[in-house]
Amino acid sequence: MERIPVRLFAWCLIPLLCMACQKEEHAQGTAASSAISGAEERQPAPGDPAYVAEEPRFTQLVGMPGPAITLQAIDGGLIDLTGIYGKKPVYLKLWASYCIPCRAQMPKLQKIHESVGDRIQVIAVNAGVGDDAAKAMAFATKVGIHMPIAIDDGSLGAWLRMQGTPVHVVIGRNGRVAFVGTQDGPALDAAIQEVLRPGPAPSVPVQTVSAQRTAVLKPGDTVPPITLTGPDGADRPLQYGASGSPRALLFTSTWCEDYLQEIEPQTVERCRRARNEVSQLSQENRVRWLGVVTHLWTTPQDLSTYQAKTRPPLPFAIDTEGAAFRTFGIRRFPAVALIDAQGRLQRIVGPDDTDLAEAVADLAGR
């Protein structure tokens, strides 16, 4: 039998080697995809407590520049997203400790971090409504997530026009949004795999869009104009400047006294106690009261239902885009902002304070 020429043998071997490399690359990709997807876990379906419907308008963000935001890490540090763009992709998961779908998604979040966290920057971002840094850290420790954890000051939520959690944001190495959604199923997995594909570094500076940051009021500051939404869906401007009488704003939610019953019974009791106390104080006519509820998971119809159920003697409005909560620095609720007759913030009475009646009497006597 004649010997095969060495050159011919080499040319025959090259396709075999390429096929082997392709099979190995496919196997690695399949393994990584399997590690991310958690195919063994059943995805929540409509009707399940952990299910959350997708928000169609999020698709409008795909292809847009990522936000130029510096996040506050709960360990005290700062996470500048613009310093990551151009170097590696970014995966932001927005969540709240009391959000049932968020809780159900935490194991998958940790799995993604463990499987591809060396190639994509995974950041767990607490929404900052109903949670403060201490509460967010305690929850993260309890559920065992081990990636950078930040708490939103409202900038990221405002950029997303977020109406509830969870929200997943995947941004490519080119600094552009690749995916925004609420579920952590195949669409999220595919987006992560896509941004992980090798490719050349961006040849032009990464474009970003600056997110609006709200300055938090300090005692003595004048309250700025803020637009709220009434239960009828109409705009209800929050009066600013001198008003002739002191005012008080009760910050709460329409779902605090029912949705949180099994998860945070102590918060439920605080919300109920604050609502009852404010109802009594509002009838003394020493200050003008307004209830302000978070816009998360809340529509004008939800507010109407809440008022019909609780029958409060004071008017209520929705903080349409979270501007009031951000402006007054409200993270945990219930809380009360006390404003003097000249329109200046005097004090925030927080959920752990027990001297609301005394604080209101002091405000009325000024």
Question: Which helices and strands appear, and what pairs or packs with what?
Answer:
Blueprint: H1 6-37, E1 66-68, E2 70-73, E3 78-80, E4 90-95, H2 100-116, E5 121-126, H3 133-143, E6 149-151, H4 155-160, E7 167-171, E8 177-181, H5 186-195, E9 208-210, E10 226-229, E11 235-238, E12 247-252, H6 265-282, E13 288-294, H7 300-310, E14 316-319, H8 323-327, E15 335-339, E16 345-349, H9 356-364
Parallel strand pairs: 1-9, 4-5, 5-6, 12-13, 13-14
Antiparallel strand pairs: 2-3, 2-6, 4-7, 7-8, 10-11, 12-15, 15-16
Write a structural description.
The chain folds into two domains: 150 residues, Glutaredoxin (3-Layer(aba) Sandwich); 139 residues, Glutaredoxin (3-Layer(aba) Sandwich). With 366 residues, the protein is of the alpha/beta class. β13, α7 and β14 form a beta-alpha-beta unit.
- How many domains? 2
The chain-level structural class is alpha/beta
Question: How many distinct beta strands?
Answer: 16
CATH topology of the largest domain: Glutaredoxin
Alpha carbon gyration radius:
25 Å
Strand content: 15-25%
**CATH superfamily caption of the largest domain:** Glutaredoxin
Q: Mind telling me which CATH architecture of the largest domain this is?
A: 3-Layer(aba) Sandwich
CATH level 1 name of the largest domain: Alpha Beta
Could you list some keywords that capture this structure?
366 residues, alpha/beta, Glutaredoxin, 2 domains, five-stranded mixed beta sheet, 9 helices, globular, disordered N terminus
